[in-house]
Design brief:
Mean pLDDT: 82
Helix content: under 10%
Distance between the termini: 21 Å
Strand content: over 45%
Order of helices and strands: EEEEEEEEEEEEE
Number of helices: 0
Radius of gyration: 15 Å
Shape: globular
């Protein structure tokens, strides 16, 4: 399980890699904190779960998170989760998906995009935001 070390303020309407550089645990040494990516070392299917805390999503705002495999957004199975703001309050956007990894060259990264009238931030756990990402091998 990983979480962010510092808050981020991505550019609007641009998918930006979420900086997750703090490991809570990594039983199989699959998370690379330097490149900030999940690098499975065993072939099979992995369950990814993610939760990203964001600040003040306005009524017209939207936050979208996506899993990327080898620098491309996963579209099959679809790995994009969207949250539309209905109040001017902090929000958490979360999702999960099962994807295949070859165990040698595949890697996975977490991205976010905002579509809002003002800048929005990805908040760290230090701010009580629950920004975390986990990857778990479930079967070959």
């Amino acid at each position: 399980m990983t979480n962010g070390g510092t808050d981020q303020t991505p550019s609007n309407l641009t998918f930006t890699k979420v900086i997750l550089d703090t490991e809570q645990w990594d039983t199989d040494s699959c998370y690379n904190t330097t490149d900030r990516r999940f690098t499975p070392n065993k072939a099979g299917y992995y369950l990814f779960t993610m939760s990203i805390g964001t600040n003040r999503n306005p009524v017209t705002g939207r936050a979208t998170i996506a899993i990327y495999k080898n620098r491309s957004e996963i579209t099959n199975p679809y790995c994009r989760f969207e949250q539309r703001g209905t109040t001017d309050a902090d929000a958490i956007i979360a999702g999960s998906n099962i994807v295949y990894a070859n165990g040698t060259t595949d890697y996975f990264e977490l991205y976010i995009s905002f579509n809002a009238s003002t800048s929005r931030s990805v908040l760290t756990n230090a701010n009580g935001a629950s920004t975390v990402w986990t990857g778990t091998w479930i079967r070959s």
